[in-house]
Write a structure and sequence with these properties.
Length: 322
Amino acid sequence: MVFKKNNIRLKQELGLSRLLSISLLLSCLLTFSSLSYAQKSSIEESTAELESSLDEDKNANKPIAKDAFEWQFILDLSVVYDPEIIAGIEQSELLHYFMPGILVDISYKGFFLQSNQRRSNALLGGTEFGYQLFVEDKWQLDLITKAYLQGYDSDSLIEYGGGDDELLAGLREREGTGGIALRYSHFFKESLFSIDFAYGSAGDDVNGKHVGGIIIDSFYSYLLPYRNWDIYLGGGLTYFSQDIVDYYIGVSPEESTDNRAEHTAKGGFRGQLEVYAQYPLSASWSFNTGITHSIFSNNVKESPIVDKSQTIQVMLGVLYVF
């Protein structure tokens, strides 16, 4: 009987040991499961935060280093109402309103050829070629060359623009002004400010002397998204030195007549207020429209060949991205 009692006690102790072992095993499994779940949740949260951060970083309004080779061609089909400050110039025929163009964006190793995606290219009239000198988190510094002013000749203004023959006939041709500039751009959350410090190069005056001068061109653009619209509200101020202004609207002694007095123009400013909007029609097509109000210095109107100091330009059209 003693052996029997000991045997039963041994079995009870063995059963208790097994029960304790199973309990410990279950505890370990539960602990490991909890740790695994917590680690998995932590990884998922970190991944979600990283993806969100990447999305925000991708969509952020900030400088982009143009190192890789990228290109884009855009067909611009626009109708533009574009009045001139030169006296008597009007768009009298339907063809005068139609301004098609091809916009080219190419970049590689810091060099770029680009159009301004935040403004009406039909009104700006061209692309910019440049090189990125510095690209930081919120700002960049570029060296660029671009056209700042369009030229004109009196014969074309009279024949195609309806200009006053007596007032404009005999004026020498004014060539366009291109410039080399140092551009500083500062990026905000939804907006962009840029300023060009440029030397503008025009044509020759009546004495064969080359004309050039300082141009300081600044512009602020704010993006206002509304449903599928991208609406850009902008304002700018541009300074043109005396040589540049006199080249375009001055009247030399050789050009003066009874109806056109000699005039030496002074340096001046041009202020601009602009609303420009784009709406996607498909993966390749988009609708764009814009209105720009330009205000020139009062002294600009003192020129005998200028009859207004303000203009309002209106544009609408479609863009096709290749």
